[in-house]
Design brief:
By secondary structure, this protein is an alpha/beta fold. It contains 14 helices and 12 strands. The strands form 3 sheets. The chain has a 7-stranded mixed sheet with strand order 2-8-7-6-5-3-4, sandwiched between helices. Strands 9-12-11 form a 3-stranded antiparallel sheet.
Length: about 400
């Protein structure tokens, strides 16, 4: 290097982007700083605050002096509770060493890809997909291979995956219920996926962030609950969505024995363990009764239905999702087919903040993502704002 020159960032960042959702959020914050009223549907946080008993559990932990290093894989009490939870609720045959506590679902996914992916390994994932996944795969030197969800649903998962697999494929990233569409794969589809990964000898990273937010139909099925799948599946869970704990940064992974040493090292050298008082709060969350979740789901369902009706009135084509926190409607012809321009038009013209569908993969183009996990007053105001623009005005705004 030339004397006095500054070394550049690592080459891995040449192919790693920055979250488009965060870019939208930053634009919204700029408008709010200027005193503008913005109808915000770009986020992905539960509408409820963290329940008081969870907050109180952290307070008690602090009062007891639970502020020292915890074991890097998690306090024993929490890990024991996680084993009981996944056995009872998910049907996963975990043992006491299976759980590793992580710094939220994002960290759990990052650590999972770090555990499994070598440079050049291909990772299959269905599209549309949650936007950070491709960048996390790329960060670790992996090659994302997109598989159309619509094609898989039309032609069958096994056949569609078989057409995309190569000798370099190592991992299948699985997300159900899904972000951004709210799709839920059926047990039959999961069995079909499992047969495929068995025949190809692949590992699965199963992202189950929305496991508790299913509003109708068949309940959640964890891939690792199927016979033999626990040996090849890293299951990633988070407290963020179920318990309104997004800012607490707490989650856990259920790890097959052959991958545990690597996963423990990733967690140790990335965070050295999750905040100790946070883990005591997470333990309290796992003791919550089902009544809490029933009430939460009813609130989400009511918001989903109200926003869906408003979007239909505004000219969007909406399929109400069975799960998660989002609507993913098709853009009206008056807004054009470019989702980024459509999102800019709505934000500039009526101060309605959404996320362009194209950031969720090519299959997302022509759509916008609206979160319905907002105050009901936000939904009412946003729907009213959308109704103020006629087709002619929208064309002019474009």
């Amino acid at each position: 290097m030339t004397r006095g020159a500054f070394p550049p960032p690592a080459l891995r960042f040449d192919s790693v982007g920055f979250s488009e959702i965060v870019r939208v959020r930053n634009r919204v914050l700029d408008l709010l700083a200027l005193g503008e009223k913005v109808w915000r549907f770009e986020g992905g946080e539960p509408y409820m605050p963290t329940p008081p008993p969870i907050r109180d559990a952290m307070t008690r932990a602090l009062q007891r002096g639970e502020t020292r290093y915890a074991p890097s894989s998690g306090i024993p009490e929490l890990r024991t509770a996680i084993v009981a939870k996944v056995a009872r609720k998910n049907g996963i045959p975990a043992d006491r060493d299976s759980p590793i506590v992580v710094n939220g679902g994002m960290h759990g996914l990052f650590a999972s890809f770090a555990t499994l992916v070598n440079p050049g390994d291909e990772v299959m994932l269905f599209s549309p997909y949650w936007t950070p996944i491709v960048d996390v795969i790329t960060y670790h030197g992996g090659v994302p291979v997109l598989v159309s969800t619509a094609a898989a649903r039309r032609d069958g998962l096994f056949r569609t995956l078989e057409q995309a697999v190569t000798d370099k494929t190592k991992v299948l990233y699985w997300n159900s219920p899904t972000n951004p569409t709210g799709d839920v794969f059926s047990r039959a589809e999961i069995e079909e996926m499992s047969r495929f990964v068995f025949e190809r000898g692949l590992a699965v990273i199963s992202d189950e962030a929305y496991e508790d937010l299913i509003y109708e139909g068949e309940s959640h099925v964890s891939p690792a609950s199927l016979p033999g799948m626990e040996e090849r599946t890293i299951s990633v869970f988070t407290f963020s969505k179920t318990y309104s704990m997004t800012g607490w940064r707490a989650g856990y992974v259920i790890v097959p024995e052959r991958y545990r040493a690597a996963m423990r090292s990733v967690v140790l050298y990335s965070i050295n363990g999750v905040s100790t008082p946070t883990q005591w709060a997470a333990l309290e969350a796992l003791s919550f009764p089902d009544d809490f979740l029933r009430e939460a789901r009813e609130g989400y369902r009511r918001r989903r239905d109200r926003l869906a009706a408003g979007l239909v009135s505004a000219g969007f084509q909406v399929e109400k999702p069975r799960a998660a926190l989002y609507l993913f409607p098709k853009i009206p012809a008056s807004l054009g087919s470019d989702s980024r321009k459509a999102a800019e038009t709505l934000l500039d013209s009526v101060k309605v903040a959404t996320v362009p569908g194209m950031v969720f993969g090519p299959e997302g183009e022509g759509h916008l993502r609206f979160s319905f996990s907002v105050a009901e007053e936000m939904i009412a105001g946003g729907v009213e704002a959308l109704s103020t623009l006629s087709s002619k005005e929208l064309q002019q705004a474009r």
